[in-house]
């Protein structure tokens, strides 16, 4: 903790950290640059796991390539959240009713499912809420975090026919 504290207080230079370490612990072996930067990167991503690599490199005053090597040494990986629809109390009942209706309708008309146009779509919310591709969580283990989203938010839908 001594090294980290002096890094942030000293204007983020290794020279001042090493000088403070020598005066505090005379005769002790001075930590290597690699050790100091591993501690700094580890602390940075523990305190703010959503920080971008570019921002972290700027804050730590190191190149992005060096930061990426240090992150690899720390086994830090990017994780994206799962986006789930926020459910209301009656949603499970309504889903069950729809499934029962579809099964009954398909039993009455065997060609029903063949006449449905199945598509793939992407939707973009007009209020600018979560795009999971821009929401990264850096960690050495998967945090399994979930973001619930509002239903029926105005959006632009782009689709493609299969």
Structure, briefly:
The protein contains 6 helices and 6 strands. It is an alpha+beta fold and 162 residues long.
Outline the structure in words.
This protein has 162 residues and is an alpha+beta fold. The protein has two domains: 2-75; 82-161, no CATH class. 43% of the residues lie in helices and 17% in strands. The protein contains six helices and six strands, in the order H-H-H-H-H-E-E-H-E-E-E-E. The protein has helices at 2-9, 14-24, 33-47, 53-60, 64-73, 91-108; strands at residues 77-79, 82-85, 119-125, 137-139, 146-149, 155-161. The strands form three sheets. The chain has a two-stranded antiparallel ribbon. Strands 2-5 form a two-stranded parallel sheet.
Note the main sheet: 2 strands, antiparallel
Average pLDDT, rounded to a whole number, is 79
Structural class: alpha+beta
Gap from first CA to last CA: 57 Å
This entry's quaternary arrangement is: single chain
Spatial order of the strands forming the largest sheet: 1-4
Q: Cα-atom Rg, whole angstroms?
A: 26 Å
Number of domains as seen in the coordinates: 2
Strand content: 15-25%
The helix tally amounts to 6
Uncertain ranges: none
The rough form would be described as rod-shaped
Count every beta strand, where a strand is a DSSP E run of 2 or more residues: 6
Give the SSE string: HHHHHEEHEEEE
